[in-house]
Every structure is written in C-alpha cells, then in structure tokens.
Amino acid sequence: MIFILLILSVVAGVLLGKYFGQKEKFAKNLLILSAGFLITICLNEVFPQVYASDIGNLGIFVIGGVLLQMILEALTKGFEHGHFHYHNENNILPMALMVGLFIHAFIEGIPLANETNPFSPYLLGILFHNLPISFILGAFLFNRTGSKASYPSILIVALFALASPFGMLLGNYFNPDWQPYFLAIVGGIFLHISSVIIFESNKNHNINWSKIGLVILGVSLALLMHLFHDHSHVGHHH
C-alpha cells in the first residue's frame, strides 16, 4: 500500500506537470504549500522522534542532511525547491538530475522501513513533497517545445518514482538502531528544502500575503494531521 502511494504521488505530479506545466505560478504555490506542510512535519514529528531516541550528537546528522541536500542541489540545480527556469533548461544534465533526485528520494524512503500506517505524518510529508517536485519534473521533461515522451524521460520518472520504495525496501535490512540516524539526515533535508522555499526573498522584500497564506495553510494541514495521528505508537514497528 505504501509502495503504491509513493509511486502514485510521483505519477500524479508528473501528469499535472505535463498538462499544466506552463502555469509556473501554480507550481510555485504548490511548492510553498508543501513547504509549510513539510517544515511542520519536520518540527512536530521527525525531530521529536529523533531526539526521543537518547542517542547523543544526532544534531550532527541533521546538519549532515542539510549539507547533503546542498551537495545534491549542485546536481539538480535546485529542482526540489522550484528553481526551474524555462529558458535555460540546458543547464541541467538529465543524468545529473536523475542521480540527484534518485539519491534524494532514496534516502527519504529508508526511515519508512516497517511502516504500515498509510496516514503516518512522515509518509504524508514525503507524498506532499513529491507532488511539486514531480510537477516540475513533468513540466521539464514533457512540456518543452518539441519535447516528447522519450525513453530517457520516462526512465527518469520511473527511477524517481521507485527511489523511495527502494529506500524503504533496503531499510528493512538495516540495523533498527540506525533508524534515528537516517531520520535525522532526512530531517536536515526537509528543513533545508522547506526553509529555502519559505524564506526565499520576495521582490523588494515586500510582504507577500498570498505566500504567507499558503505557508499557514500548509502548516495548518500538517497540524491537523498531527492532532488526528495516534502518537501512542510513534516510531516504527521494529
């Protein structure tokens, strides 16, 4: 079930990007909404779980996640937070993009090992986060002048869709005691991506009320999930 949800979130995003890819404002709004959701999941769910593990120095792994995401963005050119410019797509090598996105999604999938709850806030954070990235990916691969559903494009989508399920599968073979370390790394990745989207400067540093509203909406959705999620079994079932 969780495998299917992870794949569907990518496919749905890519299809939206294919058919609505010229609507750059829509993609941007989807990103801002997902950033509000993601940073709330990060602070309300991921970090409490990380620091409840009684392992010292996990903050180093959170910082490691932030740095890892910065390195991955050298490959993806900031695809994850909407740095998608329609006129200079040639700056992004499809192979580098594929590798960067695959590693990003693969690492996010590892903490899902043994997760059975399809309404897990962490899982919903990934699903919500996949949509805008996949939207941008779909627009980039299938919505450019003269672009068509070529095999390399379909391969990139397939690899991205399968990356988190692969991570989840591999996570089952890791020592359960490593879970907080992976969660800390992903927490750093989430923190970096969501904060970059939220805090990117507005033109002339004016107050952008629609952006603030979208962030608040994303935060509210995540808080609702937090309220209705059963925290009696926080953590994963090892």
Automatic annotation (TrEMBL):
Subcellular localization(s) per the UniProt record: Membrane
Top-level taxon of the source organism: Bacteria
Keywords: Membrane, Transmembrane, Transmembrane helix
InterPro entries: ZIP (IPR003689)
Pfam families, A to Z: Zip
Signal is among the record's keywords: no
Main location: membrane
Membrane topology listed for this record: Multi-pass membrane protein
Regions crossing the membrane: 55-72, 92-113, 119-142, 154-174, 180-199, 211-229
Name of this chain's protein: ZIP family metal transporter
Originating organism: Chryseobacterium zhengzhouense
Organism placement in taxonomy: Bacteria, Pseudomonadati, Bacteroidota, Flavobacteriia, Flavobacteriales
